[in-house]
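User: You have something folded?
Assistant:
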Amino acid sequence: MLSKNKQKFILSLTRKKNRDQQGLFVAEGHKLVSDLLSSKAHVHTLVATSQWLASHPQPTARNFEIIEADQAAIKKISTLKSPPDVVGIFLQDKNPLTITDLRNSLSLFLDEVQDPGNLGTIVRLADWFGIQHIICTPTCADIYNPKTIQSTMGAIARVDVHYRDASVFLSEYKKLELPVYGTFLDGDNIYSETLSNTGLIVMGNEGKGISKAVESAVSHRLFIPAYPADLPTSESLNVSVATAITCAEFRRQATASPSSSR
């Protein structure tokens, strides 16, 4: 039975302060919860209908709480328009990041990306393009915001998101002697550049782009050209769309020249 105290507790996790204090976050829906359950994520509580529990048997030797509830009760704790069959409470990932974890990979660095939906979509894109690590500045949206978690569509189970001070992180990253890419209106055409299989891709704030402090660490300035180039067009791209185009070009070149050494 889903008690009123438990309802109040779960709803309190919609606020960042409470999530941080408890070290927990909420995931809703079959796809998202199932992906997290099959990953390294640690479950704290499951609230689900009897039908969902019957089709997803849990191990006998479990160390988390399972609460059976009907759809009406789940609606009271859900942030979705249509309440799901299952809501999961999970422990936040506290795994530390060491700079050497990024030595042989392509990673993303997000500079003040503040929209939860954009952040969640970028996590999903990273999952699609095989990018394991995303580093966020402290002013980015909270990865554990319910809107962010839902936008990841389960990708949060496979992508590690870390929050770091920009100057400290970029100073450490410089020691790896890997390229740092950023997108700018005055950059070089991304489709004409030879891109590395390893390095850091910097994406900026929705309205201001990459900040001056972070810009100074960028070694390769890239530009995504409009088509055709001589016609009026939109002023800029949404940051998640720009991330998708950028990551796709990096992976296209890697696939086109799998044996090349860059």
Strands lie at 24-28, 43-48, 65-68, 86-91, 106-110, 133-136, 160-163, 180-189, 199-203, 220-223. The chain has a mean pLDDT of 92. The first helix runs from residue 4 to 12.
